Amino acid sequence: MSPTTVIAADRLIVGAKESRLIGPGHVRIAGGVVTEVAEGRPVDPADVTLSGGILSPGLVDLQVNGYYGHDLADADEAAWRTIVGRLPETGVTAFLPTFITAPVETLAAALRRTARLVPELPQGARVLGVHLEGPFLSERRHGAHKREWLTDPTPEALAVLLETGLVRLVTLAPERPGGLDAVRALADAGVLVSVGHSDATADQVAQAVAAGARKVTHLFNAQTGVDHRAPGVAAQALTDPALSPGLIVDLHHVSPVVCRLAFAAAGDRIVLVTDAAAAAGMPPGRYELGGEPIELPESGPPLRVDGTLAGSALRLDEAVGNAAGLGIDLMTVVDAATRTPADLIGRPDLGRIAPGAAADLVWLGDDLRARATWVAGQAVFRERT
């Protein structure tokens, strides 16, 4: 690749602080960052010319349990290489691998193993840290998590899990004994705290927000809801401007009309996530999540043996297309998969096309599926035609 690369597109989603759609336009890249964004065609011939579709910031997924047959919690180096190398096929340029509930020492060992692996990975989707979804969850809302491994967030448990410095996001139930103290400790350590798998009331969630929580994990799933006399996690998530609700728009975890409700109430705060499990990107069959078997049926998300939803097989570009197909404004939808998660995780260099931002880009076709992807200005995926 030449020192400077110019990509011209019919339509681009650009902006440092606010997204807007322009077109035609072009992006100039040098040293892995965007150096110029301009309307119209470049004076000199472009290195890459994209016809149709939209050039978007690279997608950012804060909840990926696994993909392509591998569960990230116990994946070896070859599996990690497969996942970071192939996630750009789905438009994802940065992600948080998610480790679900296990004994604290098992999670700590997984974190230490991951800390050794990540620096050796080839270029592909950026690993932004690790999301721990558990083990500090509610027994009443455990979902696909093993109830017997759930525990309270003691200072000792937190210290063991934070020792690698790799943890960037923790999902917990703040109503557990020690929950609010844990929120404060995690927030003070620079870790994003998300309320999830929780039986909390809206008031308890508000207390967690006051302690430093800023996110809600997979809105409406494994949490108290929007009862008009007993509001819970979902109600607080939709109405509290300090909270960014994660939403799985596979149209199975949350019905289309309720997805519209979520965007109507909290559109500029919604974070699209996949909650992808090892079954994602794979044919129907048996896979694993958190060391337990899950089954991917011919249609719909993966399931535990008892029929409990167990992650998803969703692509993030598919989630963008699903949300846009529900009539949600395209800028709002793209922000929910780019700028909003990037800002939430403390990476304002990601999730936007603007001078100084990382040159992480995805060309979405007219159907909003990824056609080509760049990370730090390097082409890491191009659809074969």
TrEMBL record:
Domain of life: Bacteria
Gene3D superfamilies in UniProt: Metal-dependent hydrolases, Urease, subunit C, domain 1
EC number: 3.5.1.25
One Pfam family matching this protein: Amidohydro_1
Amidohydrolase-related domain span: 54-379
SUPFAM superfamilies per the UniProt record, alphabetical: Composite domain of metallo-dependent hydrolases (SSF51338), Metallo-dependent hydrolases (SSF51556)
Keywords: Carbohydrate metabolism, Hydrolase, Metal-binding
Gene Ontology molecular function: N-acetylglucosamine-6-phosphate deacetylase activity
Cytoplasm recorded as keyword: no
InterPro entries recorded: Amidohydro-rel, GlcNAc_6-P_deAcase, Metal-dep_hydrolase_composite, Metal_Hydrolase
NCBIfam families: nagA
Family assignment from sequence similarity: Belongs to the metallo-dependent hydrolases superfamily. NagA family.
The protein's name in its UniProt record: N-acetylglucosamine-6-phosphate deacetylase
Organism whose genome encodes this protein: Actinomadura alba
Gene encoding the protein: nagA
